């Protein structure tokens, strides 16, 4: 049964880190098969959908990186509104305001998060009551990382990353180092192809060791597998060699392990507890090897309508 339409709906949506990212060889369609373990972290964007009398979605954005966010219909939040409205046979008369805290082009699925948030917000705004499985299918149309932004928690992603199976995860604490500038995800995959050309790229598979460590909630067990778990890390470091200094600075400041987040250039540091997180964040900022830091915990809930 559909809920009654509202005049404005706000959805909170988390960023992600890939605690494993196994990348296969390029497929004939140019995409890569992945086996990736997504973890949602407590670093959020909020998207507010407000009814308008217009004939298409409009977008505004506030936050430290908002000048880098497109405000036209290429914004994933606008595309989400259009896709949902087309399915329902209605006009996407909506304004989407994004309160942005997730780094832009940072490998933390910020645009994907806004797409999932806008889909959920518009569904509630228009009182559509779209079934969860259909919302997930629409998310997959919008992009490989969008379904996980809706789901949250921890999940194994296969295919392009859009086929999700929830997995068990204990509580972990993280510090993220935001880099100067962004990295284009397609450019990082192209660099991966260049670096692996002529080699036998194995079929990507989830690591049983990593899944066990994640479920255990033991930070030392997870730290032991993290430094070699991102198959895109070499490509990101090849394009941005200075990230090696950020990784070293985080470990020197007391992190248990560091890795590049997704396609980068944000780096993620696993720390023992909330107290250690504050210390590692201060050490990273003092090192001058990053633009800013964010202290977070995982797992975080997926996209959620706020009361
Ligand atoms: P991923 O981790 O999924 O590869 P990312 O976090 O590295 O993505 P995004 O923040 O999603 O990167 O931004 C990638 C590009 O997407 C941006 O440079 C921007 O042009 C475009 N974009 C479209 N919609 C948004 C949005 N709502 N927020 C940020 N960027 C957006």
TrEMBL record:
EC number: 2.7.1.148
Alphabetical keyword list: ATP-binding, Isoprene biosynthesis, Kinase, Nucleotide-binding, Transferase
Active site location: 16, 145
Reaction(s) catalysed (UniProt annotation): 4-CDP-2-C-methyl-D-erythritol + ATP = 4-CDP-2-C-methyl-D-erythritol 2-phosphate + ADP + H(+)
Binding residues for ATP: 103-113
Limits of the GHMP kinase C-terminal domain: 211-286
GHMP kinase N-terminal domain segment(s): 75-153
Pfam families from the UniProt entry: GHMP_kinases_C (PF08544), GHMP_kinases_N (PF00288)
Protein name: 4-diphosphocytidyl-2-C-methyl-D-erythritol kinase
């Amino acid at each position: 049964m559909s809920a009654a339409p509202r005049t404005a709906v706000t959805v909170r949506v988390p960023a992600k880190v890939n605690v494993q990212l196994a990348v296969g060889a390029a497929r004939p369609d140019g995409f890569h098969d992945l086996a990736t373990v997504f973890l949602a972290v407590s670093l959020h964007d909020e998207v507010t959908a407000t009814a308008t009398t217009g004939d298409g979605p409009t977008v505004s954005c506030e936050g430290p990186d908002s000048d880098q966010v497109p405000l036209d219909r290429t914004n994933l939040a606008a595309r989400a509104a259009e896709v949902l409205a087309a399915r329902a046979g209605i006009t996407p008369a909506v304004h989407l305001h994004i309160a942005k805290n997730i780094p832009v082009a940072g490998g933390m699925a910020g645009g994907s998060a806004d797409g999932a948030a806008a889909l959920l917000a518009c569904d509630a705004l228009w009182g559509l009551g779209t079934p969860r499985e259909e919302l997930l299918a629409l998310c997959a149309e919008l992009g490989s990382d969008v379904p996980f932004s809706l789901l949250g928690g921890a999940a194994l992603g296969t295919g392009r990353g859009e086929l999700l199976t929830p997995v068990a995860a204990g509580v972990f604490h993280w510090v993220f180092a935001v880099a100067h500038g962004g990295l284009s995800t397609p450019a990082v995959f192209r660099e991966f192809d260049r670096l692996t050309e002529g080699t036998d790229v194995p079929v990507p598979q989830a690591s049983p060791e990593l899944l066990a460590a994640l479920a255990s909630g033991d930070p030392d067990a997870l730290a032991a597998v993290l430094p070699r778990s991102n198959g895109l890390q070499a490509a990101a470091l090849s394009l941005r060699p200075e990230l090696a200094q950020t990784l070293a600075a985080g470990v020197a400041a007391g992190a248990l392990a560091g890795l590049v987040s997704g396609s980068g250039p944000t780096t993620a540091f696993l720390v023992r507890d909330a107290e250690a997180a504050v210390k590692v964040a201060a050490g990273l900022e003092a090192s001058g090897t990053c633009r800013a830091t964010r202290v977070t915990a995982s797992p975080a809930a997926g996209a959620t309508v706020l009361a």
